Amino acid sequence: MDTQKVVLKWNKQELAFDLQPTQTVSELKSLIYEQTHILPDRQKLMGLKLKTSGVITNTTTIDELNLSAKIMLMGTPEESITELNSSKPVQPDLSEGQEEEQQDTTWIEDPDTVPLDKREEVRMKLERRVNTYQGKILNEPRPGKKLLVLDIDYTLFDHRSAAETGVELMRPYLHEFLTTAYEHYDIGIWSATSMKWIESKMKLLGIEGISQGRTTNTEHNYKIVFYMDSGAMISVYTKEFGLQDVKPLPVIWEKYPTLYSAKNTIMFDDVSRNFLLNPLNGLKIRPFKRAHFTRTTDRELFHLTQYLVMIAQHDDLSKLDHRRWEQMLERQQFIERRKTN
Protein backbone atom coordinates (compact mmCIF):
# COMPACT_ATOMS: atom_id res chain seq x y z
CA MET A 1 0.00 0.00 0.00
CA ASP A 2 1.44 3.39 -1.01
CA THR A 3 2.19 5.85 1.75
CA GLN A 4 1.14 9.49 1.80
CA LYS A 5 3.44 12.25 2.96
CA VAL A 6 2.15 14.73 5.54
CA VAL A 7 4.27 17.87 5.94
CA LEU A 8 3.76 20.27 8.86
CA LYS A 9 5.27 23.68 9.54
CA TRP A 10 6.11 24.21 13.22
CA ASN A 11 7.99 27.33 14.31
CA LYS A 12 10.91 27.35 11.87
CA GLN A 13 10.93 23.59 11.44
CA GLU A 14 9.39 21.33 8.85
CA LEU A 15 8.08 17.96 10.05
CA ALA A 16 7.41 15.19 7.53
CA PHE A 17 5.55 11.92 8.12
CA ASP A 18 4.99 9.02 5.73
CA LEU A 19 1.66 7.46 6.66
CA GLN A 20 -0.56 4.71 5.39
CA PRO A 21 -3.87 5.95 3.91
CA THR A 22 -5.78 4.01 6.59
CA GLN A 23 -3.94 5.60 9.50
CA THR A 24 -5.89 8.19 11.47
CA VAL A 25 -5.48 11.75 12.68
CA SER A 26 -5.08 10.29 16.18
CA GLU A 27 -2.07 8.27 15.02
CA LEU A 28 -0.64 11.35 13.32
CA LYS A 29 -0.91 13.27 16.60
CA SER A 30 0.90 10.49 18.43
CA LEU A 31 3.76 10.69 15.91
CA ILE A 32 3.83 14.48 16.30
CA TYR A 33 4.09 14.03 20.07
CA GLU A 34 7.09 11.72 19.65
CA GLN A 35 8.97 14.39 17.70
CA THR A 36 7.83 17.56 19.45
CA HIS A 37 6.65 16.52 22.96
CA ILE A 38 3.46 18.50 22.37
CA LEU A 39 0.62 16.59 23.97
CA PRO A 40 -2.02 15.55 21.42
CA ASP A 41 -4.69 17.64 23.14
CA ARG A 42 -2.46 20.72 22.86
CA GLN A 43 -1.77 20.27 19.17
CA LYS A 44 -3.57 22.66 16.84
CA LEU A 45 -3.35 21.69 13.16
CA MET A 46 -4.19 24.79 11.15
CA GLY A 47 -5.20 24.28 7.53
CA LEU A 48 -6.12 20.61 7.87
CA LYS A 49 -9.10 19.98 5.58
CA LEU A 50 -11.24 17.12 4.33
CA LYS A 51 -11.57 16.23 0.65
CA THR A 52 -15.33 16.47 1.12
CA SER A 53 -17.56 18.37 3.55
CA GLY A 54 -17.73 17.27 7.15
CA VAL A 55 -15.92 17.49 10.46
CA ILE A 56 -12.41 16.18 11.09
CA THR A 57 -12.17 13.87 14.09
CA ASN A 58 -9.38 11.74 15.51
CA THR A 59 -10.82 8.76 13.62
CA THR A 60 -10.58 10.55 10.26
CA THR A 61 -8.17 8.65 8.02
CA ILE A 62 -5.26 10.17 6.11
CA ASP A 63 -6.90 9.16 2.84
CA GLU A 64 -9.90 11.39 3.69
CA LEU A 65 -7.73 14.50 4.08
CA ASN A 66 -6.84 17.11 1.48
CA LEU A 67 -3.07 17.31 1.95
CA SER A 68 -2.36 19.79 -0.85
CA ALA A 69 -2.76 22.81 1.45
CA LYS A 70 -0.08 24.02 3.86
CA ILE A 71 -0.58 22.67 7.38
CA MET A 72 0.65 24.63 10.38
CA LEU A 73 1.26 23.02 13.77
CA MET A 74 0.75 25.14 16.86
CA GLY A 75 1.48 23.97 20.39
CA THR A 76 3.87 24.11 23.33
CA PRO A 77 6.12 21.17 24.34
CA GLU A 78 5.66 19.83 27.85
CA GLU A 79 9.21 20.79 28.85
CA SER A 80 8.47 24.44 28.10
CA ILE A 81 5.20 24.29 30.05
CA THR A 82 6.99 22.81 33.07
CA GLU A 83 9.62 25.52 32.89
CA LEU A 84 7.00 28.27 32.71
CA ASN A 85 5.07 26.88 35.66
CA SER A 86 8.20 26.52 37.78
CA SER A 87 9.01 30.21 37.20
CA LYS A 88 5.75 31.40 38.74
CA PRO A 89 6.60 34.37 41.05
CA VAL A 90 6.12 34.23 44.80
CA GLN A 91 2.93 35.91 45.95
CA PRO A 92 3.51 39.27 47.69
CA ASP A 93 3.46 39.44 51.47
CA LEU A 94 0.12 41.02 52.45
CA SER A 95 0.79 41.04 56.19
CA GLU A 96 1.30 44.79 56.18
CA GLY A 97 -2.15 45.45 54.74
CA GLN A 98 -0.96 45.74 51.16
CA GLU A 99 -3.58 45.20 48.50
CA GLU A 100 -2.75 42.41 46.07
CA GLU A 101 -2.34 43.72 42.55
CA GLN A 102 -4.14 41.95 39.76
CA GLN A 103 -1.77 39.82 37.72
CA ASP A 104 -2.32 39.70 33.96
CA THR A 105 -0.57 36.34 33.67
CA THR A 106 -2.20 33.10 32.50
CA TRP A 107 -0.46 30.04 33.89
CA ILE A 108 -0.42 26.87 31.89
CA GLU A 109 -1.98 24.13 33.99
CA ASP A 110 -0.64 20.62 34.25
CA PRO A 111 -3.23 18.54 32.37
CA ASP A 112 -2.86 15.64 34.81
CA THR A 113 -3.96 17.80 37.77
CA VAL A 114 -6.98 19.44 36.12
CA PRO A 115 -10.24 17.44 35.88
CA LEU A 116 -11.05 16.53 32.28
CA ASP A 117 -14.31 18.48 32.18
CA LYS A 118 -12.53 21.61 33.48
CA ARG A 119 -9.78 21.74 30.88
CA GLU A 120 -10.07 24.64 28.50
CA GLU A 121 -9.36 22.59 25.37
CA VAL A 122 -12.01 20.04 26.38
CA ARG A 123 -14.60 22.75 27.01
CA MET A 124 -13.83 24.24 23.59
CA LYS A 125 -14.26 20.86 21.90
CA LEU A 126 -17.55 20.31 23.70
CA GLU A 127 -18.79 23.71 22.63
CA ARG A 128 -17.92 22.96 18.99
CA ARG A 129 -19.73 19.63 19.12
CA VAL A 130 -22.81 21.22 20.66
CA ASN A 131 -22.88 23.95 18.03
CA THR A 132 -22.12 21.85 14.95
CA TYR A 133 -23.13 18.23 15.52
CA GLN A 134 -26.63 17.19 14.50
CA GLY A 135 -26.91 13.41 14.70
CA LYS A 136 -30.11 11.77 13.47
CA ILE A 137 -33.39 12.44 15.27
CA LEU A 138 -35.86 9.58 14.87
CA ASN A 139 -38.62 10.28 17.38
CA GLU A 140 -39.67 13.01 19.76
CA PRO A 141 -38.34 12.76 23.33
CA ARG A 142 -40.91 12.29 26.08
CA PRO A 143 -40.86 14.83 28.95
CA GLY A 144 -40.45 13.20 32.34
CA LYS A 145 -38.51 10.19 31.06
CA LYS A 146 -34.93 9.39 31.94
CA LEU A 147 -32.37 8.74 29.19
CA LEU A 148 -30.63 5.46 28.34
CA VAL A 149 -27.71 5.76 25.88
CA LEU A 150 -26.53 2.51 24.31
CA ASP A 151 -23.41 1.47 22.46
CA ILE A 152 -23.80 -1.10 19.66
CA ASP A 153 -20.69 -3.21 19.03
CA TYR A 154 -20.22 -5.90 21.68
CA THR A 155 -23.00 -4.22 23.68
CA LEU A 156 -26.07 -5.11 21.60
CA PHE A 157 -24.52 -7.61 19.22
CA ASP A 158 -21.33 -9.40 18.25
CA HIS A 159 -20.09 -7.50 15.21
CA ARG A 160 -17.02 -9.66 14.58
CA SER A 161 -18.41 -13.17 14.25
CA ALA A 162 -19.72 -14.47 10.93
CA ALA A 163 -23.36 -15.47 10.52
CA GLU A 164 -26.08 -15.72 7.91
CA THR A 165 -28.55 -13.49 9.79
CA GLY A 166 -28.33 -10.70 12.36
CA VAL A 167 -30.47 -12.69 14.79
CA GLU A 168 -27.57 -15.13 15.23
CA LEU A 169 -25.33 -12.30 16.44
CA MET A 170 -27.92 -10.35 18.42
CA ARG A 171 -27.46 -10.29 22.18
CA PRO A 172 -30.08 -12.40 23.98
CA TYR A 173 -33.12 -10.53 25.38
CA LEU A 174 -32.35 -7.42 23.27
CA HIS A 175 -35.90 -6.58 22.19
CA GLU A 176 -37.35 -7.49 25.58
CA PHE A 177 -34.71 -5.28 27.20
CA LEU A 178 -35.54 -2.30 24.97
CA THR A 179 -39.30 -2.79 25.40
CA THR A 180 -39.12 -2.72 29.20
CA ALA A 181 -36.55 0.07 29.34
CA TYR A 182 -38.73 2.23 27.08
CA GLU A 183 -41.41 2.35 29.77
CA HIS A 184 -39.09 4.45 31.93
CA TYR A 185 -36.37 5.77 29.60
CA ASP A 186 -36.00 7.48 26.27
CA ILE A 187 -33.45 5.45 24.31
CA GLY A 188 -30.56 6.79 22.24
CA ILE A 189 -27.91 4.91 20.24
CA TRP A 190 -24.32 6.19 20.25
CA SER A 191 -21.68 4.23 18.36
CA ALA A 192 -18.05 5.04 17.59
CA THR A 193 -18.71 4.31 13.91
CA SER A 194 -20.28 6.22 11.04
CA MET A 195 -23.99 6.93 10.72
CA LYS A 196 -24.12 4.65 7.68
CA TRP A 197 -22.94 1.69 9.75
CA ILE A 198 -25.29 2.51 12.63
CA GLU A 199 -28.28 2.44 10.29
CA SER A 200 -27.05 -0.77 8.70
CA LYS A 201 -26.61 -2.48 12.07
CA MET A 202 -29.97 -1.34 13.38
CA LYS A 203 -31.61 -2.80 10.29
CA LEU A 204 -29.67 -6.01 10.82
CA LEU A 205 -30.98 -6.26 14.38
CA GLY A 206 -34.56 -5.58 13.38
CA ILE A 207 -34.66 -2.24 15.18
CA GLU A 208 -34.78 0.08 12.16
CA GLY A 209 -38.53 -0.05 11.53
CA ILE A 210 -39.27 0.39 15.22
CA SER A 211 -36.85 3.29 15.55
CA GLN A 212 -38.65 5.14 12.75
CA GLY A 213 -41.89 5.04 14.71
CA ARG A 214 -43.32 2.11 12.74
CA THR A 215 -43.68 -0.57 15.37
CA THR A 216 -43.57 -3.78 13.34
CA ASN A 217 -44.18 -6.15 16.25
CA THR A 218 -46.67 -5.46 19.02
CA GLU A 219 -44.47 -7.42 21.41
CA HIS A 220 -41.63 -4.93 20.85
CA ASN A 221 -43.32 -1.65 21.63
CA TYR A 222 -40.47 0.85 21.83
CA LYS A 223 -38.90 3.68 19.85
CA ILE A 224 -35.40 5.09 19.50
CA VAL A 225 -35.07 8.86 19.96
CA PHE A 226 -31.75 9.44 18.18
CA TYR A 227 -28.62 7.99 16.60
CA MET A 228 -25.21 9.55 17.29
CA ASP A 229 -21.99 8.50 15.57
CA SER A 230 -18.25 9.09 15.90
CA GLY A 231 -18.68 12.70 14.78
CA ALA A 232 -20.07 13.57 18.21
CA MET A 233 -17.03 12.19 20.02
CA ILE A 234 -14.04 14.22 21.17
CA SER A 235 -10.46 13.30 22.00
CA VAL A 236 -9.00 13.75 25.47
CA TYR A 237 -5.56 12.99 26.85
CA THR A 238 -4.92 11.30 30.18
CA LYS A 239 -1.69 10.02 31.63
CA GLU A 240 -3.25 6.60 32.19
CA PHE A 241 -4.82 6.00 28.77
CA GLY A 242 -3.02 8.46 26.49
CA LEU A 243 -5.10 10.00 23.71
CA GLN A 244 -8.63 8.58 23.64
CA ASP A 245 -11.83 9.33 21.77
CA VAL A 246 -14.70 9.56 24.27
CA LYS A 247 -18.48 9.99 24.21
CA PRO A 248 -19.24 13.23 26.09
CA LEU A 249 -22.82 13.16 27.38
CA PRO A 250 -22.89 16.99 27.75
CA VAL A 251 -23.34 17.11 23.95
CA ILE A 252 -26.76 15.51 24.52
CA TRP A 253 -27.57 17.50 27.65
CA GLU A 254 -26.92 20.81 25.90
CA LYS A 255 -29.17 19.75 23.01
CA TYR A 256 -32.02 18.90 25.41
CA PRO A 257 -31.37 21.12 28.45
CA THR A 258 -34.92 20.87 29.82
CA LEU A 259 -35.15 17.09 29.41
CA TYR A 260 -31.84 15.36 30.11
CA SER A 261 -29.00 15.96 32.54
CA ALA A 262 -26.44 14.12 34.65
CA LYS A 263 -29.23 13.34 37.09
CA ASN A 264 -31.39 11.29 34.74
CA THR A 265 -28.94 9.77 32.22
CA ILE A 266 -27.21 6.39 32.15
CA MET A 267 -24.93 5.05 29.40
CA PHE A 268 -24.10 1.40 28.67
CA ASP A 269 -20.82 0.66 26.91
CA ASP A 270 -18.41 -2.27 26.88
CA VAL A 271 -15.46 0.19 26.88
CA SER A 272 -15.37 2.25 30.08
CA ARG A 273 -12.95 4.78 28.54
CA ASN A 274 -15.85 5.99 26.40
CA PHE A 275 -17.34 7.69 29.46
CA LEU A 276 -14.14 9.18 30.88
CA LEU A 277 -15.81 12.61 30.82
CA ASN A 278 -18.91 11.43 32.65
CA PRO A 279 -17.89 8.38 34.74
CA LEU A 280 -20.77 8.76 37.19
CA ASN A 281 -23.25 8.14 34.36
CA GLY A 282 -21.52 5.15 32.79
CA LEU A 283 -22.11 1.45 33.31
CA LYS A 284 -19.58 -0.95 31.81
CA ILE A 285 -21.44 -3.85 30.28
CA ARG A 286 -19.74 -7.17 29.71
CA PRO A 287 -18.79 -7.46 26.02
CA PHE A 288 -20.86 -9.91 24.00
CA LYS A 289 -18.41 -11.89 21.86
CA ARG A 290 -18.26 -15.33 20.23
CA ALA A 291 -22.04 -15.24 19.87
CA HIS A 292 -22.37 -18.80 18.58
CA PHE A 293 -20.90 -20.14 21.82
CA THR A 294 -22.24 -17.63 24.36
CA ARG A 295 -25.77 -16.74 23.24
CA THR A 296 -27.30 -19.64 25.19
CA THR A 297 -25.73 -18.48 28.46
CA ASP A 298 -25.49 -14.68 28.16
CA ARG A 299 -28.07 -13.05 30.46
CA GLU A 300 -26.53 -9.59 30.77
CA LEU A 301 -29.46 -7.69 29.25
CA PHE A 302 -31.96 -9.76 31.24
CA HIS A 303 -30.37 -8.67 34.52
CA LEU A 304 -29.74 -5.10 33.37
CA THR A 305 -33.43 -4.79 32.53
CA GLN A 306 -34.18 -5.45 36.19
CA TYR A 307 -31.52 -2.96 37.27
CA LEU A 308 -32.94 -0.20 35.04
CA VAL A 309 -36.41 -0.75 36.45
CA MET A 310 -35.04 -0.74 40.00
CA ILE A 311 -33.25 2.62 39.65
CA ALA A 312 -35.91 4.31 37.48
CA GLN A 313 -37.45 6.05 40.50
CA HIS A 314 -34.16 7.52 41.76
CA ASP A 315 -33.98 11.31 41.53
CA ASP A 316 -30.25 11.37 40.72
CA LEU A 317 -28.69 8.46 38.82
CA SER A 318 -25.23 10.00 39.08
CA LYS A 319 -25.22 9.34 42.83
CA LEU A 320 -25.45 5.58 42.29
CA ASP A 321 -22.33 3.46 41.96
CA HIS A 322 -23.15 1.69 38.69
CA ARG A 323 -19.97 -0.36 39.00
CA ARG A 324 -21.76 -2.29 41.74
CA TRP A 325 -25.02 -2.75 39.84
CA GLU A 326 -25.10 -6.52 40.34
CA GLN A 327 -24.63 -6.29 44.11
CA MET A 328 -27.29 -3.56 44.30
CA LEU A 329 -29.72 -5.70 42.31
CA GLU A 330 -29.06 -8.80 44.42
CA ARG A 331 -29.60 -6.82 47.60
CA GLN A 332 -32.90 -5.42 46.34
CA GLN A 333 -34.09 -8.86 45.29
CA PHE A 334 -33.11 -10.26 48.70
CA ILE A 335 -35.14 -7.55 50.44
CA GLU A 336 -38.15 -8.26 48.23
CA ARG A 337 -37.95 -12.00 48.92
CA ARG A 338 -37.89 -11.38 52.65
CA LYS A 339 -41.00 -9.22 52.36
CA THR A 340 -42.93 -11.98 50.61
CA ASN A 341 -41.91 -14.68 53.11
TrEMBL record:
GO cellular component terms, A-Z = nucleus
Region span, Disordered: 83-106
Q: Which UniProt keywords apply?
A: Hydrolase, Magnesium, Metal-binding, Nucleus, Protein phosphatase
Its main subcellular localisation, reduced to a broad class, is nucleus
Cofactor(s) required for function per UniProt? Mg(2+)
Q: Name one GO molecular function term.
A: protein serine/threonine phosphatase activity
Domain FCP1 homology: residue ranges: 141-311
| InterPro entries per record | FCP1_dom, HAD-like_sf, HAD-SF_hydro_IIID, HAD_sf, Ubiquitin-like_dom, Ubiquitin-like_domsf, UBLCP1
PROSITE patterns of this UniProt entry?
A: FCP1, UBIQUITIN_2
Q: What is this protein called?
A: Ubiquitin-like domain-containing CTD phosphatase 1
Tell me what organism the protein belongs to: Adineta ricciae
